[in-house]
Automatic annotation (TrEMBL):
Pfam families in alphabetical order: WD40
SUPFAM superfamilies linked: WD40 repeat-like (SSF50978)
InterPro entries per the UniProt record, alphabetical: SWT21/TCAB1_mRNA_Telomere (IPR051150), WD40/YVTN_repeat-like_dom_sf (IPR015943), WD40_repeat_dom_sf (IPR036322), WD40_rpt (IPR001680)
Highest taxon listed in the record's lineage: Eukaryota
PANTHER family xrefs: TELOMERASE CAJAL BODY PROTEIN 1
Protein name according to UniProt: WD repeat protein
């Protein structure tokens, strides 16, 4: 038997397990680790995302094959894990990711494909009510919205995200104090942050409500403080010599390479609950 390291491509801490366990996603495999156990014994549980040969032979089992590139636990406490792959599939699993498969679906060839594109899932995020799943992809100009009450049903998509890149571009789900209201905040390759309010209240394509310029380079992450009135943005991307040929440190072009973290005071957001 040959021993080999399995490289994780995603990780999540299920809040229902008290912070003592975490899940990792790798090639067609989800593993559960217990951080209270010393040593290097590996995971305490693991679940292949493809059905066993025995189940396939009897015509049973559903699953998905590919690198588990993103995971998210439903915030309502029901223990449902959503896992996504670079091959554009999503699987739902019970018992905080260690239970049975509740269903799988593909996001490829949907109505949104010809509008915003997509080249593999990089982030999953639940709505505060736990009924909808936001799906962010690489090489995509938007964010998909799926209704999980009807597994695999596309509700709509957010347009104009400006994220046609292989870089991971994160989004943030920002709850608002009034009921189930929330917003989606996302950065773009043009240095702007865009905000969509209550995307689940309507179907089809949706444009952002407002945007503002925050960096001189790609904004790969934006998050809001739990108190709601402070935001943080991070920027930067890999630049090659083809992007900036024959320049030196004194060149004005170098000023456009913005690898930075900024913290913003936003008192007008008071009342948001994150």
């Amino acid at each position: 038997m040959t021993e080999a390291f399995i490289t994780p491509h995603s990780m999540v801490y299920p809040h229902t397990l008290g912070g003592t366990h975490f899940l990792t996603g790798s090639d067609s495999l989800i593993c559960l680790f217990d951080i209270s156990r010393p040593g290097n014994d590996g995971p305490i549980a693991w679940m292949p995302t493809i059905p066993s040969k025995r189940k396939q032979m009897v015509g049973g089992g559903v699953g998905m094959k590919g690198i588990i590139s993103a995971m998210a636990i439903n915030p309502t406490g029901d223990g449902i894990l959503a896992a996504g792959t670079f091959s554009r599939q999503v699987g739902l699993y019970g018992a905080n990711g260690t239970g049975e498969s509740l269903g799988t679906f593909s996001i490829a060839k949907s109505e949104a494909d010809r509008h915003i594109g997509g080249g593999g899932i990089t982030q999953l995020a639940w709505s505060p009510c736990g009924r909808y799943l936001y799906i962010a992809e690489r090489k995509s100009d938007g964010v998909l919205i799926f209704d999980i009450r009807v597994t695999g049903q596309l509700l709509g998509w957010l347009e104009g995200r400006q994220a046609l890149t292989n870089q991971r571009m994160k989004i943030d789900v920002v709850p608002i104090a009034q009921g189930d209201s929330h917003e989606i905040w996302a950065g773009g390759t043009d240095g702007c942050v865009r905000v969509w309010r209550n995307p689940t209240h309507s179907a089809g394509p949706q444009k952002c409500q407002w945007e503002w310029k925050v960096h001189d380079d790609s904004v790969n992450s934006v998050v809001l403080h739990p108190m709601g009135d402070i935001a943080a943005t991070a920027s930067g991307q890999r630049h090659t010599s083809r992007d900036m040929p024959a320049i030196d440190a004194a060149s004005p072009l170098m000023e456009k390479v913005d690898n930075s973290l900024k913290v913003w005071s936003m008192p007008f957001l008071d009342g948001y609950v994150h």
